[in-house]
């Protein structure tokens, strides 16, 4: 009886679930057998190393059992012999053979072992899959580029050409924040009042971060669904004769710290102005609670990366960073005092701290898996109106280089710059899977 013969004998009792190609074949797991052993076990010498005598040495040496019945070869349709185990003679005697029972028990033990191995392998696979979840997300998000490189061209992220490094804070130097963008929303509309058709418009300002050559991350609240006009009252933001697309309501400025003339949609003195193809907000964004306050802008074309325009590095995992009480940085063009209506034209930056979530618990409707508490606890430094969507970054090493990692987006807070009330930021890592869809 050959190896193949024993396999043919055993396979009918293998559960169908074990036929998966993830498991080794039974032939690979069972030892090699010698035909002579199966035909006459009591004639096998103790030296038959590597054969079935090793498994049943006790039965062989005792010579208390009868040899197995002869094996009848079966001729297939092509005339070749394909031996299968087929008892002959007294079937009742063969059935009661202790040697045969021992073989069956041994085979069952082997099969049970295979099942246990498969179960253990499955459990280990699930654990490994969970541990690598964030890596798989990042791989999809980064277009299969290695971490530290993003976009269709696998551009290196976090490149800066000025190493110097908002209520409080100071003006930033040129090229110190090459991935930050300035977003202008200008909505024109017609309304009817006092028997006449009039025109109106609304302007709001935000910031964002370039994460590849044509994609900007920002806050969902930068895309208003309604605006309030002094004469028209509450106006719904929608496509009209002035705006054939939602994207046409937005303009993005890149590569410049000076936003002089941006509210008039003038070309900047440095950097570039570019149109928007689409603005998608998170489907679960709640304007009342500010949960899931994140949006993605797709630019109308890819931009060239220069000394003043670069892409930001994204976090590698959903919960990044896991540490608190660490330094972080913010930047933006928002007002420099609460309730002020004056916006600075120069980009400002500030150093703050990442806090325990409990230090922001006075704010309502919080989910600290998807949000970050950050700021100066004494209220001296904070983001405010006009800073929404702007970056919250920390320093970390990427491929041996120290870089700024985008961990949050300016979202909301209990006022601006108030003692004991740090700001609340959208946690970018939590939304990596959603971001990867774009």
TrEMBL record:
GO terms for molecular function: serine-type endopeptidase activity. This is Acrosin. It comes from Brachionus calyciflorus. It catalyses: Preferential cleavage: Arg-|-Xaa, Lys-|-Xaa. The lineage of its organism: Eukaryota, Metazoa, Spiralia, Gnathifera, Rotifera. Pfam families: Trypsin. Keywords: Disulfide bond, Membrane, Transmembrane, Transmembrane helix. Residues 166-438 form the Peptidase S1 domain. The keyword Cell cycle does not apply. Residues 74-97 have a biased composition (Polar residues). Residues 71-97 are annotated as: Disordered. GO terms for biological process: acrosome reaction; proteolysis. Its EC number is 3.4.21.10. It comes from the Eukaryota. It is an enzyme of class 3 (hydrolase).
């Amino acid at each position: 009886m050959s190896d193949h013969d024993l396999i043919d004998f055993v396979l009918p009792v293998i559960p169908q679930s074990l036929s998966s190609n993830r498991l080794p074949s039974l032939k690979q797991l069972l030892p090699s057998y010698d035909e002579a052993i199966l035909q006459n076990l009591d004639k096998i010498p103790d030296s038959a190393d590597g054969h079935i005598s090793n498994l049943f040495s006790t039965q062989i040496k005792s010579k208390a059992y009868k040899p197995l019945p002869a094996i009848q070869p079966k001729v297939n349709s092509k005339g070749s012999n394909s031996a299968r185990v087929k008892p002959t003679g007294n079937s009742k005697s063969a059935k009661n053979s202790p040697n045969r029972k021992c073989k069956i028990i041994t085979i069952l033990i082997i099969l049970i072992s295979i099942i246990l191995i498969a179960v253990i392998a499955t459990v280990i696979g699930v654990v490994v899959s969970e541990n690598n979840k964030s890596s798989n997300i990042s791989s999809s998000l980064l277009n299969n580029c290695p971490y530290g490189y993003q976009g269709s061209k696998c551009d290196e992220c976090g490149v800066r050409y000025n190493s110097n490094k908002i209520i409080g804070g100071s003006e930033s130097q040129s090229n110190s924040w090459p991935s930050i963008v300035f977003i202008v929303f200008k909505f024109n509309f017609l309304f009817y009042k006092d028997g006449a058709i009039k025109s109106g418009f609304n302007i709001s300002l935000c910031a964002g971060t370039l994460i590849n050559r044509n994609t900007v991350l920002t806050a969902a609240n930068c895309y208003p669904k309604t605006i309030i006009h002094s004469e028209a009252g509450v106006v719904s933001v929608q496509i009209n004769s002035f705006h054939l697309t939602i994207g046409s309501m937005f303009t993005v400025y890149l590569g410049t710290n000076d936003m002089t003339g941006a509210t008039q949609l003038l070309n900047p003195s440095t950097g570039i102005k570019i149109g928007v193809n689409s603005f998608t907000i998170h489907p679960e964004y709640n304007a009342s609670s500010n949960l899931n306050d994140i949006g993605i802008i797709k630019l109308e074309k890819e931009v060239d990366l220069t000394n003043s325009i670069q892409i930001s590095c994204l976090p590698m995992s959903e919960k990044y960073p896991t540490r608190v009480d660490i330094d972080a940085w913010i930047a933006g063009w928002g007002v420099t005092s609460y309730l002020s209506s004056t916006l600075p034209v120069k980009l400002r930056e500030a150093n703050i701290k990442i806090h325990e979530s409990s230090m922001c618990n006075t704010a309502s409707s919080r989910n600290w898996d998807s949000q970050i508490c950050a700021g100066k606890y004494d209220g001296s430094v904070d983001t405010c109106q006009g800073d929404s969507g702007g970056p919250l970054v920390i320093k970390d090493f990427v491929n041996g280089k120290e870089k700024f990692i985008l961990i949050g987006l300016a979202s909301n807070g209990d006022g601006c710059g108030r003692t004991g009330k740090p700001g609340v930021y959208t946690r970018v890592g939590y939304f990596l899977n959603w971001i990867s869809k774009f």
